[in-house]
Write a structure and sequence with these properties.
8 helices, globular, membrane, transmembrane, ZIP family metal transporter
Length: 242
């Protein structure tokens, strides 16, 4: 239980790191784009090599396919809602995000972070050890969210202290979500774990395709293709040695 909470908190801690940089430093868009591109590759690798591979191995093809499509669909519906409220740039790190987008970005990040953290707890149930690939992928992908949202909060007039506290709350939610995933999901229920894993994979694929990769290319240029491939290779290597 403590390990589940700890790893969920570690994965969510990059939100706080990104927030601190957004508060106190001006980060070049290209640097953030390169980090985002690498994180995209790692996330795709985690979703493919860890979540989908395990889901199909344990549960066949039907239920993982359904879970995958439901996860992708729900993410897109949430993305449409959040975008209309001004949170379309929560994965981005522009210096001038949408006016009054800070809280919308914050809410959108919570929607992303909770199911991701639950998967960390599930990976502990399945493998008796944390999935390094998933933790690293979530850690990398969270960084631009904390960075961009903090910029939005500053422009909305939030104090530095309040911004920091908000992101600490999200980190705690990530830790608690991982713990709850470990405690309340029956490790003998292969079907439930299979669907959750495939569901998360679908959400991850939809997320990187619609938010992270387009923004990374816009800000970083063609080199992001190589960095994404490098991230995917990193996920493969981590999976191999895991």
């Amino acid at each position: 239980m403590l390990l589940a909470a700890m790893w969920g908190g570690i994965a969510g801690s990059s939100l706080v790191l990104g927030a601190l940089l957004g508060i106190y430093k001006d980060i070049p868009n290209k640097v953030s784009a390169f980090v985002m591109a690498f994180g995209t590759g790692v996330l795709i690798g985690a979703a493919t090599f860890e979540l989908l591979a395990d889901a199909t191995q344990d549960g066949g093809i039907l239920y993982p396919s359904i879970g995958f499509l439901v996860g992708a669909t729900l993410f897109i519906l949430a993305e449409l809602f959040i975008s209309k409220k001004g949170g379309q740039e929560r994965k981005r790190s522009k210096e001038n995000p949408s006016t009054h987008s800070g809280m919308a970005i914050f809410i959108g990040t919570i929607i992303d972070a909770i199911p991701e953290s639950v998967i960390i707890g599930v990976s502990l149930l399945e493998n008796k050890t944390v999935s390094w690939v998933i933790v690293i992928a979530i850690f990398i992908s969270n960084f631009p969210e904390g960075l961009s949202s903090s910029i939005g909060f500053k422009k909305d007039g939030y104090s530095k202290g309040k911004i920091f506290i908000l992101w600490v709350v999200v980190m705690i939610l990530s830790s608690v979500s991982s713990l709850l995933g470990f405690v309340f999901i029956d490790p003998s229920s292969t079907l439930v774990i299979t669907i959750i894993g495939a569901f998360a994979a679908g959400g991850i694929f939809a997320m990187v395709s619609s938010t992270m990769l387009p923004e990374a290319f816009e800000e970083g240029g063609p080199i992001v293709g190589f960095l994404s491939a490098l991230g995917l290779l990193t996920a493969l290597i981590l999976t191999y040695f895991e």
